[in-house]
Every structure is written in structure tokens, then in C-alpha cells.
Specification:
Blueprint (H helix, E strand, L loop, with lengths): L2 H8 L7 E5 L7 E6 L6 H4 L1 H6 L4 E6 L21 H18 L7 E6 L1 H12 L6 E5 L21 E7 L7 H13 L3 E7 L8 H14 L2
Parallel strand pairs: 2-3, 2-4, 4-5, 5-6, 6-7
Antiparallel strand pairs: 1-3
Helix pairs in contact: 4-5
Length: 220
């Protein structure tokens, strides 16, 4: 195995592109990191930038290798999703670091995602606690098997968190959304959960409306 292959095996998402839309980082009031779902793309999730209607914000969307952040369900034992999961969390951390290096502090950064990207967003914020401008999870929750201890250490210091999903989503059990909200609240986040009866596995107009409201409050 050559060096390049070894790096790809250990860090499968290394070298993937990060797309950007909206305001330039040097001029933006804040930034939103957008994480796509399994089978999606950075280009797809950047469509939310237009839907959010905030051209004063910078939007950054990293691309997952092979369009998937980790191979198994987010409810699988964590070791079954390694090294992809750790590599994915590292990519989000590097994007956040690049935003901070451009002069935007973490309290003006929103972490958002859909489905697999929503799970990654929630796990990243809980694993890297700080005061963020917000967390927006379109159908997702903390990563790990049902029944596991979801406890994380650290203080989210009032970070507004919006967790939304359908009541019978085929990929994300509503109970995991509830349990994730409880843990984020214990860590000091201000959490809003919204359950949609019969909602398909997609982002609805009402979810976008609620996300816009969170952004309005975060960047008032």
C-alpha cells in the first residue's frame, strides 16, 4: 500500500472539496456550515442558502467521499462507522477552523445538516461544545446505538438548537431526536424540537421557515 492509499484509508474524506455560497467570509456577518445527507452532495445542500434568504451570511458545504459520511446507520455501533465517522468530524472541524481563521468567531457559526448530515451536525456540536450561533438538524440526532449513553462533556452555553423530524421517519426514530434534545439541553443548549406527523424523509417548507427564524434571531 502506498502512502496516498494509506492516508485515504485512515482519512477517507481528506482532500474532498468544500463549496461556498453567499457572502465572502471576509465580509459576512456569520457563517453556516451545511452538511449533506447520504447520497447527496455539497451542491445539493447549498440550495438551502437560497431558501434561507440571508445573503449576508457565508455558506460552506464540504463534500463527503462517495457521497456518504459513514457507511452504516447512525444507530450502528460506532466502531462499525470508523474511520469514516472520525474523518467526517475532522472535516467539519477543519471547515469551522477555516471560518474562525477568517475572523468569524464560533458564536457566529451555525452548524446545519440533513439526515446523515443532521446526525453529523448534532454529534459535532455535542463533541466540540462551545457557544455556536445555532444548530439546525433536519431529521437527525446524536450518533450511536439505541439505548447507549448519549452523554457528552462540556457546555453549549445557550446555543440555540432546532431539531426537526417526522414522527415515523424510516431512518431516524423520533425517540432518538427526543433523547438528543435532552442531552443538548443538559449541556446548556436552548433546544426546540418539532415533530411532523407523517412527514417524508425530506426538508419541508415549515422546517425552512423555522430555520430562517433561528438565523434571524442568531444574526439580529
Amino acid at each position: 500500500m502506498n502512502g496516498t492509499s494509506a492516508v485515504r484509508e485512515m482519512y477517507p474524506h481528506a482532500g474532498q472539496p468544500v463549496l461556498q455560497a453567499g457572502a465572502a467570509l471576509a465580509e459576512a456577518r456569520g457563517a453556516v456550515v451545511l452538511l449533506h445527507g447520504r447520497g447527496g452532495s455539497a451542491e445539493d445542500i447549498l440550495g438551502l442558502a437560497d431558501a434561507f434568504g440571508r445573503d449576508d451570511l457565508a455558506y460552506l458545504a464540504p463534500q463527503a467521499a462517495a457521497h456518504s459520511w459513514y457507511p452504516m446507520s447512525f444507530l450502528a455501533p460506532r466502531e462499525e462507522n470508523e474511520p469514516w465517522l472520525t474523518s467526517a468530524l475532522d472535516i467539519v472541524a477543519s471547515v469551522v477552523a477555516s471560518i474562525e481563521a477568517a475572523g468569524i468567531p464560533r458564536e457566529r457559526i451555525v452548524i446545519a445538516g440533513f439526515s446523515q448530515g443532521a446526525c453529523l451536525s448534532t454529534e459535532f456540536v455535542a463533541s466540540n461544545p462551545a457557544r455556536y450561533a445555532g444548530l439546525i438538524a433536519f431529521t437527525g440526532g446524536l450518533i450511536g446505538p439505541l439505548g447507549m449513553d448519549l452523554r457528552h462533556e462540556g457546555d453549549l452555553a445557550g446555543t440555540p438548537a432546532l431539531l426537526m423530524a417526522g414522527d415515523h421517519d424510516p431512518h431516524v426514530p423520533w425517540q432518538r431526536v427526543v433523547d438528543s434534545a435532552k442531552e443538548l439541553e443538559r449541556m446548556g443548549a436552548k433546544v426546540e424540537t418539532v415533530c411532523y406527523p407523517g412527514k417524508p424523509h425530506s426538508v419541508s417548507a415549515d422546517e425552512v421557515k423555522r430555520a430562517r427564524a433561528l438565523l434571524a434571531g442568531a444574526f439580529a
